[in-house]
Amino acid sequence: MRLNGGRGVWLAVVLGTLAGCSSGVRDGGSETLDGEVTYRERIMLPPGAQVRVRLEDVSRADAPAELIAEQLIEPKTQVPVPFSLLYYPAAIEPGHSYAVRAEIRSASDQLLWTTTERNSVLGDGQPSDDLRLVLQRVAGKAPEAKASAAGPNPWTEAAARGVDFRGIGNEPGWSLEIDDGNRIQLVTDYGQRTINTPAPAPRFEGGIVHYDVRTEAHSLNVEIEPVACQDSMSGEAFEARVRVRLGDSLYQGCGRYLATTR
To answer: Residues 91, 21: contact at Cβ < 8 Å?
Structure first.
């Protein structure tokens, strides 16, 4: 636990009035709860995602938790995301129970991941440093995409099958589906050729997600870059730029992460 001499820049992320403290913030030092926020899925944070970490008084089982302090983070890297949550000891009541929770939301404020277990702090024998908050993915709808007049929405269908990421490109038409931990499927030449490979653990480098596959039959490299991308034919907006190299062939296009229900 680090002791700080003043409030400094923390006032931008900590509530000016601390819940549950009738006398407000007293003069003097502040303390921090330090740790990291992560999740088990091997996928990257979508562009514009925000991480919110909160310290709450959870003493009363029959009432909502009272907010003590909060930190809002706009991560520049992938998980784990470090946090240092400032709070004032004057807001901590003897005999009360406190816990830290976190959530990750998309740029459109959709809840993506959240804590589901109680992470107790500030009690006897409870940690205040090196906290590790492991968030659970929230089941939800896949991002909306334009439906094809020829049939069902392929994005919705892919999400229902447990696909985590889907990409598409043109000239020649191709599509990519990544089911993390299971398989990668690349369909090229307007559907004439289908390649299925195991999905290795992703590699994160310079903010780009890499999948490198080597089998007896194929050499496949996938790069997913979290920048805005527009389909060259439909004009549809996507959250990521995709580059796929299969042997000597290069495919470029756009894609997005899907919220699966599994």
So the answer is: yes
Q: What is the phi-psi region of residue 53: left when phi exceeds 0, alpha when psi lies from -120 to 50, beta otherwise?
A: beta
Q: How many residues does the chain have?
A: 262
Task: Collect all residues with Cβ–Cβ distance below 8 Å to 14 and sequence separation of at least 6.
Answer: 7, 69, 70, 71, 86, 87
Token pair listed for 98: 């406190």
Helix, coil or strand: residue 212? strand
For the question of whether the overall pTM of this predicted structure is more than 0.90, the answer is no
Strand partners, 53: 71, 102
The per-residue pLDDT for range 206-229, each reduced to its tens digit, is: 889 999 999 988 899 999 998 889
Strands (E), the chain: 3-4, 30-39, 50-57, 66-73, 81-87, 98-105, 111-114, 120-121, 131-137, 165-169, 174-179, 183-188, 193-198, 203-205, 208-214, 219-225, 229-230, 237-238, 240-246, 249-257
Q: How far apart are CA 167 and CA 162, in angstroms?
A: 15
Q: Which two tokens stand for residue 106?
A: 């998309």
Confidence class for position 140, pLDDT limits 50, 70, 90:
low
Dist. CA 260–CA 257, nearest whole Å: 9
* 3-class SS of residue 154: helix
Query: CA–CA separation, 257 vs 35, rounded Å?
Result: 27
Alpha carbon distance 128, 45 (integer Å): 26
